[in-house]
């Protein structure tokens, strides 16, 4: 019965990405978004509520927010601290929070109908977990997430290590995409940001409708410049909360990739004029020394209409302005993170013995109602689960057979180590991730230990692909949930 409820919960919300949602509520009473706060302390308060987001001089959209901003308030805590988040829902519909990439206990994972009941309008829920692993993470709605994340319901979670190398500036930059001409009619001439970017189940998604790219909820000249001083060490935490991959170019400076998905890179070497590709759900931390005074750009490269808006100025304080003339159309190499950094002994290897081995052939097929996305030829809930017991060592092979589609595969509750790419062992730093971007024709082998009991989702973080079938579970056979979903509660819609 529990598995049936799990299946219904997952499908209900993934399918929400494929259907028209209800009309927006009146926006006249909604407040304007404010700048994102930084929250810390023994008890943190988050409120989900509606607001208006001014993306640039011409575009304002109705949004869902945490504490009135997009991105939502940044939660910033120290490693080892007990995190207590008192969450109140002031939205007109149920919602919940998932801590993306963070290995919380299963009952804090925030999947309605699977780990908890959805938080209804006017209600509160308290999340608690210990911040054991430092790094850059994010949080977002896990209730009808194809709609609610698309409306701006996400924020950032930074866990500072006990002994952190000193940096002079620490900026968090969240990437996203919006529509200025969605299929839904506009209100008072303002664009509306809807869940229709993906379609699915007979409606092929048209990503060209996403013509506004944003950094921290702003686009183009509306993005606040990053201030630096000469010789400062600057850290940029880059998080992709959208549904497209973005290739970013840091102009005028060498930089190092110091972490991916919050996990450190061993001996990162300086690189310059190479593009950093960030897939949906991924995070990259980069650092550079501000040793080239002037005004420079961190910008997105590509041919999409919104590309030109995803750029932020880096301004040296008290320095004569230098105008950056480089073009976002120039051809530059893309960093291969599997060859970056230096090797060192790691937890897993290709030739050790594993308790569980699972091959995940990622494919595209025609279903009864249109294109579906498959794992081993099946769509969820018919995909075979990854069955484990606590303590098992697990090896998973991904093979992307889709001719055109990229699949950023995300595992809840665990990190995995990337062992090989296209049949060859990786040659760079040990690579620990929770979201792995797999291009057409690519093959990866990853490994993890089943060290966090529960039943965890393992799915493509392009929610169009998930809604059309690309979902499975890591199921602990020796685990029994203490949460029983209410079969009569239709508000629990899971992912």
TrEMBL record:
Signal peptide: 1-19
Top-level lineage group: Bacteria
Alphabetized UniProt keyword annotations: Copper, Metal-binding, Oxidoreductase, Signal
Pfam families noted in UniProt: Cu-oxidase_2, Cu-oxidase_3
Molecular function GO labels: copper ion binding; oxidoreductase activity
Positions of transmembrane segments: none
Residue ranges constituting the Plastocyanin-like domain according to the UniProt record: 50-163, 209-313, 366-476
PANTHER family (alphabetical): FI03373P-RELATED, MULTI-COPPER OXIDASE
Protein name from the UniProt record: FtsP/CotA-like multicopper oxidase with cupredoxin domain
Source taxonomy: Bacteria, Bacillati, Bacillota, Bacilli, Bacillales
